[in-house]
Amino acid sequence: MGYIPQHSLENLKKYSYKGVDKSLLSRYVLNPFWTWFVTLWPLSVAPNTITLTGLTIVILNFFTLLYYDPMYLTEKNGAEAPPHWVYYTWGIGLFLYQSLDAIDGKQARRTGMAGPLGEMFDHGCDALNTTIECILASRALGLGRSWWTVASQIATLANFYLTTWEEYHTGQLYLGYFSGPVEGILMIVGIYLVTGYYGPQFWDQKIFTFLHIAHLPLINKIPNLPLNESFMVFGGFGLGVNILQSYLNVRRATLVKKISPTRPLLHLFPFLFTALVQIAWLSHPRFNNSYIIDSAAFVPFLCAWGLQFAHMVGRMILAHVTSTPFPVWDWVWVWSIAGAMDANLPMIGMSPLIQKSSKNTTIFVWVTLVVSFLAYARFVSLVIYDITNYLGIACFRVMKKDAEGVWRNATPDTKRS
């Protein structure tokens, strides 16, 4: 019942991480910091422990949103914004996540624990962080529960999917001069810090008015969007650039392998299909004019979506490290498909079978969240079980190979280096 076919387990031993990072900020500023930061961690700390620590910090940030703004789950824009100091903790937490996410690979090389398990664990945590930060950043920008938040979710997940898709077809993780894991995260950290100082209302200012250029010729012909919406438009352009860059990288790889450069493009349709399913569910025509986006179901809806997405990209990266076929279909989307179809039955003159009221819709969305969580938890546990048992390693314990090539527990008095 595992996710790795028996005949593909041998490929785990052949896997080696390959990556390219062209970011100047990463090379000249962050990487020297990360190289120093990793030395603060004893060699007895497993790389996956560092990764999980970073994710835990982000999850705590998410819980502070729910604690200090509980009405965000029931009121459209929340009863009131969280205290300003909370946004500072979000910025610090995200920066720590980025730093811990960057040094887990360095720790893996220091301890000799680099391998497919670390790649899977790191990727899984990144997938979960993507949705959490989307919700937090949208709240910090004052977007609340809106289609702009949905657009942000789609854009961030699309970027992540593209990166995973590209890594599968090229065999390496490619980060350009401007990438989400480096510059993108630091931009969001900056948003948190600005919001902490000025408050979410800062982002409601018109961009050209804020820049004092609204009176200039031609500029006054362009829509004077608020700062928060302008940031979303900027993100859309960034997504377009990433799509082009990823395609060019994949195209070069396919030409080297002498396969059709159009075939990998078909593997983009799973994400497009699932995004359309979620949009169809969100925009369903309701006879009582109650939409998920305006209800207490919106945040759990995004979380369920994020968990289902994490399951999908998790299987993609698993296919990469085990050299197995690209997973086109993922069964976890069946629940969302059912929800979208049920909610849209009024389009053919029928009443929803399940979502007959806002209460029923909210219950159904929460059940979807629970099912999505259990499905992803099952995926994670089975993959960890298969990899650790086959390779003879542990997930959260540093081990060393002996003279016979067998993994053993590292000595407890291992010193730092």
UniProtKB/TrEMBL annotation:
Q: Under which EC number(s) is this enzyme classified?
A: 2.7.8.2
**Where does this polypeptide localize?**
Endomembrane system
InterPro entries xref list = CDP-OH_P_trans, CDP-OH_PTrfase_TM_dom, CDP_ALCOHOL_P_TRANSF_CS, CHOPT
Q: What class of enzyme is it?
A: transferase
Q: Which GO terms describe its molecular function?
A: diacylglycerol cholinephosphotransferase activity
Gene Ontology annotations for the cellular component aspect, listed alphabetically: endomembrane system; membrane
**Major place of residence:** membrane
Tell me the Pfam families matching this sequence: CDP-OH_P_transf
Q: Transmembrane segments in this chain: where?
A: 49-68, 174-198, 231-248, 268-284, 291-311, 331-351, 363-385
Alphabetically list the UniProt keywords: Membrane, Transferase, Transmembrane, Transmembrane helix
Pathway recorded for this protein: Phospholipid metabolism; phosphatidylcholine biosynthesis; phosphatidylcholine from phosphocholine: step 2/2
Q: Which reaction does it catalyse?
A: CDP-N,N-dimethylethanolamine + a 1,2-diacyl-sn-glycerol = a 1,2-diacyl-sn-glycero-3-phospho-N,N-dimethylethanolamine + CMP + H(+)
Q: Which cofactors, by name?
A: Mg(2+)
**What does the record say about its membrane topology?**
Multi-pass membrane protein
Concerning its family, UniProt says: Belongs to the CDP-alcohol phosphatidyltransferase class-I family.
What this protein is called in its record is diacylglycerol cholinephosphotransferase
